[in-house]
Amino acid sequence: MAKKADKAADDALVRASLRAVPGGKADGGAAGEGAKASGASGASKSGASKSGTPGGKRRAESAVERPARPLASEVGAGKAGKPGKSAKAGKTEKAGKTGKAERAEKAEKSAKPDKAGKKAKKKDHDKDGGKDARAARPASPLLRVVHGSVPPAPANVPSVRDVLRLHGGAVDLASADARATPHAPGGKAEALADIAAMEPRLAELQERLYAQAVAGGSRKRLLLVLQGMDTSGKGGVVKHVIGQFNPSGCHIHAFKSPTRDESAHPFLWRIRQQVPAPGLIGIFDRSHYEDVLIVRVRDLVPRSVWSRRYATINRFEQSLHDDDVTVVKVFLHISYDEQRERLLERLDNPDKHWKFNPGDIDERALWPAYQDAYEAVLQKCTTDTAPWYVVPADRKWYRNWAISRLLLEHLEEMDPHYPQGHFDVEAERKRLLET
């Protein structure tokens, strides 16, 4: 009697599980050959009545493809081959559990020690990985180069300084092609790859320049002066080119309209406050040249005042040169049409509205006057110690590549070196090992 009760209980559990299977009796589909073996003829009738509908047809097809599970009573009678574990359900606490449920339970139990093992393994891996990660870090806090690696060499191209430099004389910006790419290593892809190749070398030279000043007493530094019409890319150069350097070794300053305090001093007073200290790379986003550009175009000061400032600027830049400041002056040459496109981009993109100023259109209306003012600057303030470089800026990738090259060539000419230590290395090593 107990065995019959156990088998009946197993049959009820299996029928309940079949209700969740498409094609089972409770689901209204055809039970297939397995259901016929258990006497479930009603399921076949129900499946035939619903096979005319799309859902019924799919369930009927599913039932044919998926044979029904044998009942526990059939397993006990040997109709499905070897006796299943369910036949012993009355002798254990696992009565009513299907073979699948037992396997799931065993898998869950066996997974527990594996989970603990994985945690221990992960802990060991993290511990070892932490050591490896620390060992792979650059030894220097300033240089972002993994020591021991061999970065690709920059492209072998002619000097950019020679082709972009002005040598004095009259300047005609209208005849200069703002989309030109002189001495570029190829197209955009090749230029971007070369920028990446220059970065380790630029970082190394920057670190040498910094170390030479901090520990060697050198006064050498570099000052990049960026000038150009609105949207010519001064901010883009700071982001994409100067972004290759370690910021702790840079001094960046964007000059706006003079404050009341600044206006109370000579026009170069506020400029002198921002000259980079020894060992640093300074970047001027606009500069002292605004005092011979916008003041001239807008008649902010009399002609007799701004016309004398060219000579004053030349003397100032000569004094910087004499104090070991390498001045790299770049005019970003953008075309009238390209400026319109970039202003339209700012208007059409809400995310760039913060960059747009209605005054930009007012300044654009004065384009011819600004071109005349820039031509005067490029002619009168190009000297042997601080020449101007005219960089075509309609193509942003070329602009960034050309300025990266200019900086690389100037830093290599400066030839900074790591200073030698004034101590006995072996004696200090011995002292350290004794601690």
Biggest beta sheet attributes: 5 strands, parallel
Number of strands: 5
**What structural class do you assign from the helix and strand content?**
alpha/beta
Uncertain segments are 16-97, 118-147
Mean pLDDT across all amino acids: 78
Describe the structure.
This protein is an alpha/beta fold. 50% of the residues lie in helices and 7% in strands. The protein has 19 helices and 5 strands. The protein is globular, with a radius of gyration of 40 Å. Residues 16-97 and 118-147 have low confidence and may be disordered.
A few lines on this structure:
This protein has 19 helices and five strands.
Which short descriptors sum up this protein?
435 residues; alpha/beta; 5-stranded parallel sheet; 19 helices; 50% helix; 7% strand
Topology, element by element:
Elements: H1 2-18, H2 32-37, H3 41-50, H4 54-65, H5 72-76, H6 99-136, H7 160-164, H8 188-214, E1 221-228, H9 234-240, E2 250-254, H10 260-263, H11 269-272, E3 281-285, H12 294-297, H13 303-306, H14 309-322, E4 325-333, H15 336-348, H16 358-364, H17 367-380, E5 388-392, H18 396-414, H19 425-433
